[in-house]
Protein: RING-type E3 ubiquitin transferase
Organism: Branchiostoma floridae
Amino acid sequence: MWCFVSRPDSVLLEVELEPKACGQECLDKVCKKLGIVEVDYFGLQYSGGKGTDARPLWLNTRNRLSRQLDGPPPYRLRFRVKFFVPPHLLLQEATRHMFYLHLKEDLAEGRLTAPTNKAARIAALIAQAETGDYDCNNADLYASCYPAYLPTWSNDLLSAIAAEHDKIRGMKRATAEYNMVKECSELEGYGQENYAVKDSSGINMHIGVGPEGILLMDDDLNTIQSVLFTQVQMATHAGKCFFLTILETTGTNTTLGFKLPNTKMANALYRAVTEKHAFYRCETVRSAVITQFSRDFKGTLVSLFNENTVVGKKYVFDVRRTCREVYEETRRLLYTRGMAVQLQPDTANSLNNLAEGCRCDDIDCRCGCVEAVELQERICKLEEALLCRVCMDEEISTVFSPCGHVVCCDECAACLEVCPLCRTGVERTQHIFLPAQISRLDIESCTQQGRDSLQCSLVST
C-alpha cells in the first residue's frame, strides 16, 4: 500500500509499505529519505473528526496503520515535529531544518505567536533563510514575502522586519534557521498542543499541553491556571471526557473534568499529557507506559484462550525514550556510524584543494597528497577516541564505580549521577592515568608531521 506524507513546506513524499505495516515503518522510511537519525522527535499526523471538529491527530506509530485510518489506501499523512526541544540539543542540520519548517508554518497560521519586537526578529531570520541578504533596491519583493511569515502585520512591523533583516547581512542560511528556532524556543507556547474543551459548567476553554506542564486557558487563550507536571497526580479519560487530578498548594487533591468533541480527541489529550510527561520529565519511560495496551472485541475473545496473543492488541501510548535518552542515543549512533560522514566535508575540501595544487598528469599520482590526507583522517579518529564522550573536549581521565566504564573527564564525571553507557548509578569516581595520554602526545606530534608532509607534497608539485 502507498502513503502520501506531506512535509511542513508542502513537499509530498511517497512511501510504499506492506498492507499490515505499522506506523513506525512509515516514519522510519520518511526519516531515511530526509537523512534524519533523530526520529524520536517526529511523528505522523492524520485528520481526525469531521467538519468543524476535524483536526490533526497523532498516529500511534506502534500500531498498524490500517486500523487507525479510515478508508482504503493510499493514506494521506503529515510529517511534523511531535516533541520540541531547544535547538542546541539537535545534532543534525536536517533535523534543525524540519524544526524550522514546522515553526515557520505555526507562525504563519497563528498557532505560535510572538510579541512585536520578537516577531520582527523572527521574520527577519526567515527572510534571510529564504531570500538571502537584504537588498534595498528590491523593496517590492519584501513587501510581498514579509506578510506571509506572520498572520497579522502592519506597515510599522514591515519596516521593523526590514531593519532587522539588514542587520543580519551575510548570515548563512543554516545559521539563520538555527537562530530562528532558538528565538521561537523562547516564546510562550513553544512545543505546546492546544485542545478545545468544555468545563463542567459547559464553558468553552482550551487545554495546552507543553514541555513544562498543562495550561488551562479561556476561549481567547488567556491563561487561567498553570499546572506543572509535578502537580499532576492522575490523568484519565472515559468516552468524550477527560479527568485531571492535581495537587493544590494546600496539599489537597482536586479533580477537574472536561468534555471534548469526540472520543478520539479525548484519547488524544490523554495521550498528550502522558507522553509529554514521560518524554520531558522522566529519567526513563516506565514499563507501565510502554507496555499498556487494549484489545478489540475479537482480541478479547482470543485472549481468553491465549493470554499472550497479539490479535487485536493496540498500544495506548507512543513514546519509548525520554528527551535525555534520545539525545544520548543519537550522539552514540552518530559517533559510531557517522564519524566518517562528519569528516567527509573537510576531507572533500582537502581533496579539492589538493586537486587544484597538484599538477601531476599521471593517474597513479605518487606525490603523496592522498596519503597525507588519509593520515590526517586517521589521526583525527584517534584523537576523538581519547576524548571525554560527554564534552568531547578534555581527555578521558576517570573511571566509574561499580560499573568500571572509562568514558569521561574529571569535570564531566563530577556532574553525572549515572554512567552514560550502562545507566548504572555512580557510587564513586576515581582519577586514572592511562598510557593513552602519552599516546595522545604522540598523536599531536604525528599531526604536525602530517601537516608538514601535506605542505611538502603541495610545494614539491
In short: The radius of gyration is 27 Å. Residues 339-370, 436-441, 453-461 have pLDDT under 50 and may be disordered.
